[in-house]
Batch of 3 targets.
Target 1
Amino acid sequence: MSLHPGTAAKRKAPDSQHADNPAKVRRRSPTRVNPALYLFPLPAVAVVAFFLVMPTLQAFQYAITDWNGFSAAFNYVGLDNFIRAFTKDSLFTNALTNNLKFVLLVVIAQTAFSLVLALLLTKNSRGSILLRALFFFPTILSSVSVAFIWKFIYDPNFGLANSVLGAVGIDGGSYLGNDAQALYWVAVTQVWFHAGQMMVVYIAGLQAIPRELYEAAEMDGANKWQQFKSITWPFVAPATSIVVAYTTVQSFKAFDLILGIAGNPPKAALDILSTRIYSTFANSEFGYAAAQSIIFMAMIALVTWLQRRLLRLTPKGD
Amino acid sequence: MLASISRRAILAIYAVIIIVPLTVVAFGSFKTTQELFAGPFSLPHSLAPDNFAEVVGGQNLGSSFMNSVIVTAVSVPLTLFLASLAGYAVARLKGFMSWAIFGFLVLGMAIPAQANMVPLYVLFGRLGLLDNLAGLILANVVSTLPIAVFILGGFMRTLPKELYEASSIDGSGPWKTYASIALPLSAPSIAAAAIFLFVIHWNELLYPLLFIQTPGNRTLPLALLSFQGEFQTNYPLLFAGVILASLPVVVAYVFLQRYFVAGITAGASKG
């Protein structure tokens, strides 16, 4: 299985550096580049520039206005929208706190759990392959479908969780109805949804570890935990950084799942940044919604950067 | 011994946690509400597709299904086409230009869709692309083009340059080389990207929610979401909707599993 594009790209890096070396390139291929080739990327570049890059830059422009989306008149308000978000808008700070908590929960739980599944299913036996396909399955469903399935599991009166608990004589909870716990239950759903996808990334990483390393470690008398700590963990570090980065972005944007499971707009206990931005937008506060989007983007960038630092520092400390 | 038992236990428990809810949904879509609440795990009394008839006919999920088919059937090939053109140029151009084009296109992966939704909504409003399927198709293409270029361009770069050069020495122009060399040789990565895009476009919710007003223009995920408020606890009806929305992807998964895993995992590395 070539399921590991991250490392594949890294391994290819030296080659492309060679190609970038102008002296070598010129000597090796005297043929000129056909100018028609420059036409090929043009449609993609135009679409991305006009519909992706430009709107993103415009978000910065909108963010310093009080535009409502309809009237021709609006005022430039400087950084007021950003100040409002952090100091005067408890809905926004609530969504921000929820979002960071949700990301932290899902990243830790999903990374650990998908690694456990991958370790248990590394070997390409028939059973493993079948179980991998099963565990991967939820990933292909739409978020709204997954949300509906779990709404039923969590239903306090008729739901699956409480029927099962009731059958063994345990009083069930109210799950999503309990504001103190609701976010944790949605995190469980998110892990069920995507752990199988991350498991596949880990399996590719695990299968690339040379078996001789384990044999040598065993001869040296290393136990399973020591083998994991000094062979498996360092070797799957690239996979871990992919899993953590992807899970972070994915759980930052759990927009569809939250709307499906909590309704639109979601209650405060389940409001996250993307749903808050949408509510602000639906409330015709375009300028303010744009400012919130920029904070959202900055948060993703900040958290991703912090993680990269943390993950890079770990092997050095080993 | 102990390790082997706990391994089996963990795998078995998780398999149950996946299989049981899916089975309950499949069975439940044929039940009445009372029947579902009385015994969520039991087999349905009858296989009469009453709930399906209700969601398809009564709730217009049939037209939403067609809308989703149209949007996905256009946006997936269109994204692949634009991305493969760009990927091909990136593979054949040299030095700075190749790097700059690839970098520019792929950089878009770092922009979350929620970050530019306000200006995009305004822009689409000016272009008359709100509340119609053309707008949804364009939004799908825009949002997934960077990742598609990343997958396809990344693959085409690994094809030996001699293949392209041999073809152009034979007198083929760049277009012919693209169509007869680059595309066929990239088939595995195109298949993986196609599956990835299929899942993303079929399940897309944000853009329909932003753009679509008229119920007749809803795609499946949006139509399903609107069930949420209407049928709070009519789970059999919700389940019939879930089955209908998932069926095409599930059928494709059964037959093309290998590409699913490769495609969706290639998408995962974008972080």
Target 2
Amino acid sequence: MIRIAAVGDIHLSPETRGVLRPAFDTLPACADLLLLAGDLTRHGTPEEARVVADEIRGLGVPVVAVLGNHDHHDDRQDEVTAVLREAGAEVLEGESTVVRVGDARVGVAGTKGFGGGFVGASAGEFGEPVMKEFVRVSRRCADGLRASLEKLAQEDCDVRIALTHYSPVPETLAGEPLEIYPFLGSYLLAEAIDTAGADLAVHGHAHAGTEHGMTTGGVKVRNVAQPVIGRAFHVYHLPVPERVGAATEATTT
Amino acid sequence: MSTHDAGPAAGTSAARSPEYRVAHLQDRLASGHLGELGVRTEVRGETVLVHGTVPSARCREDVLSTVREELAGLEVHCDIVVSEPSSPDHAEELS
């Protein structure tokens, strides 16, 4: 069993320095890794990113993150990423990483994702350049997620997790105004997850949303935005499927 | 002397209606220095409800100050809470 801690939308800044560290210090006792689902800062400044970095440095569990829209606000997302990486976090955008937990290989594929809406009420790549670009960005994020999950499948991972900031499904947005759903997520993310396969999908972004959802293909989705979970993080216990021929492998090595 | 009503074409007090003021407030909260997209403002009859979760007490005060300024003269109910930073007391078993 893999113990996955996750939270998004912590929106740290100098005035909230150190507020999550006491809770994060308990992670080694209750989790094998920490996923950060974006919006780690308020305005995406390197100064705010350094507060996040201090919060996660030397935690004792691996930290895997994606950025959110707030982390892009100051147009310095590369610097924010660099600050977080310097603190030891893996920051993913259309990329994947493999974390070893005992004998198990946990694959995490990540992208910020973007909006566009959900089946029956989604934006199309048509009209003004800015509208077409909006949809293209969403598609690029989803393509990156699918390719990363497929790469993890080839890398013999025991479990695979899709980590995004924007939501792949509308269920976890319940509580938000219906009118803003197209700005909260995209079905393209869910399609990518269902096409490549995953054991769990984790996202943030929707502060007034709901924790639990599922893709059409049956992948469990969890909205871990801090206002939704009401804690510093939530922990999910994910079973590790028994490997076919594992017993044989064990005796021959 | 004409008694003809100029009508809406001349502009009406609706331009300062609570709906437009709330919309401008929402825009200011999101795109101003607060960068606060998680606070919702809704017109409820004669009053305005402001609710959501913010990362700190200071942020809550900043939001309220902006709300008071933007919606001066309107009755405002505030239900903004600060994020809870404690550890969880249980885990969810995923099957």
Target 3
Amino acid sequence: MEKVLKKYWPLFVVPTMAAFTIGFIVPFLQGLYLSFCEFTTIKKAKWVGFDNYIRVFTDDPEPLMDSLGFTVAFAVVSIVLINLIGFLFALVLTRGLKGTNLFRTVFFMPNLIGGVVLGYIWQILINGLLSVVGEPLLALNTTAGYWGLIILMCWQQVGYMMIIYIAGLQSVPESLIEAAKIDGATSLQTLLKIKIPMIMQSVTICVFLTLTNSFKLFDQNMALTNGEPMNTTTMLALNIYKTFYNRTGAQWKGLGQAKAVIFCILVVLISFGQLRATRGKEVQQ
Amino acid sequence: MKKRLWALFMVCVLAVACFAGCGAKDEGKVYYLNFKPEQDPQWQALAKSYTEQTGVEVTVVTAASGEYETTLQAEIEKADAPTLFQVNGPVGLANWKDYCYDLSGSALYNELTSDSFSLKEGNEVLGVAYVIESYGIITNKTLLAKAGYSVDDIKSFADLKKVAEDITARSAELGFSAFSSAGMDGSSDWRFKTHLANLPIYFEYQADGIGTTKAIKGTYLDNYRAIFDLYINNSTCAPAELSAKTGDDSRNEFLQGKAVFFQNGSWEYGSLTADGAYTDDDLAMIPIYTGAGDEAKQGLCTGTENYWCVNKDASEADIQATLDFLEWVVTSEEGTKCMANDMGFVIPFKNAVESPNLFVKQDNAYTAEGKTPVSWNFPTMPSENWKNGVGSALTAYAADQTDANWDAVVKAFVEGWKTEYELIK
């Protein structure tokens, strides 16, 4: 077997590697290069060195910092809520209740709808509600925009995280739970001391996914609020998009590109930090 | 959605490019990146017909609505880049002038009826306008008659205000409102942040005798407020709900006979008369009176923001093929007929065929009466960001019509203009 693998490894590696190179490595390097340029089109890029990066911190009409606060506030609340609700659903739906499969499917379904479609649907729903209670509509209401985004993301992602947690819970060995029962552990103790430590791997994955999704959120943000009112609900990715497209001229493309690189580094750093923190709590079976 | 549309689009382009690869290379070929989705089928048909007659391959690709700049940015990088694309005026040209072929001396440029329809930089002609459009207040004459008025009763802002407020006062009894909703949703607030905003800019330019400025004064912003107030307070819905209304909502209200007035342009003619919804006898377009300037002489807002540019970086054969194609489009019987009748365009070329579009005819009639069309000055607006700022402030003002909120509009308009112009290199 190993011999065969040694002989044929290119067959397995090359297609994936080629796709990864074409679809990720090359554009990434090109993007990195462009962040040091002013350009309208990639062919006619003009090298300007670190100018763009300096401008990001000194002379940017839409500073990243403005969007960072909103993004962090959104990320913290949505990570906690999505994981908590997803985990609770998973607990309920691993008890062998009637209709478990139906509920699992139903909760998962919002995930199959694209972000922009969801954004517009929720915009109609939330605006309908706001106009009934006589509050300013989404385009004029930062608070509603914030909570609207959180509700929307919970609705979309809870089902997905639930599936991962269910898989985790099902892989906890029966023998451990039985042993705990015999030792007289209550169900709460079993949950806290046996189940949760045993599914830390799922927690790592779910927190990683929700964390990166929250920071990179774009479609839903654009469809639901598009940053209104007055850019108070603009998240990082939308901020970069606006820098790139809202003005004509080569200098904006370069600035947007530099912001995108900084954004990328930020997301990588945060998610590495998170991976290290939660990995440390994982246990081997 | 953008990403998805984009992906779909790329697949299409790839497919087109694969097929195009088989064509003959020497004769040159044309690749037109079209801006107007409404006219895509007509362009496709025209291209096909030209290919059948001359054997020159013409590819027409239409960018999704609102995605033209992003599409062009990606397309122009390719080996088979568009040979023909368009910019929306001087501000748009600034982005693309490195790619514009000098059209002076070309047949296309010589066919123009007036030099004012070209976009110049020094002596170079970089863009040529290909369609002239008008906008104003589209009026349902039948409903107006039911309310006891006719379009001849509206000759000034004061008349318009009187009629609109009278209709509002009796709207329960009449069963319709004066204006269709001024939808401020991001997809359609251009009707107000761009088209309506053109009027105060136009009058200021007229008063100061200029054609563009880096510092707008906002002399006529009170008139802007007056007309906007009229729109939002005599409408089919409460002003607070406008932020979520779209242009489609507005058109549907007009089509369903819920409103007498609907601010939009000659491009709406097709959708208003489709399936016999309205006939020419029901409709009229009146100037947008704001109480500024000489109202007795004010015509419709007529102009263009559609300029053709030929890609300088295309091969010589392709450039020549593109110029030949354009010449054929604006001079041949088939081309001019297609643009007038099928696309509903008024084209600023010598061989133009008269368009059946009612609003276009009305524009001509107003001009014949000695009225002066209001020119389109929004191509001089500094950036998309400026428009968005004004749009945001207008939306907030519509929901809560206080002086403080109007001051925010003025600030976005005047200070925003200055800031955004300073940001242009």
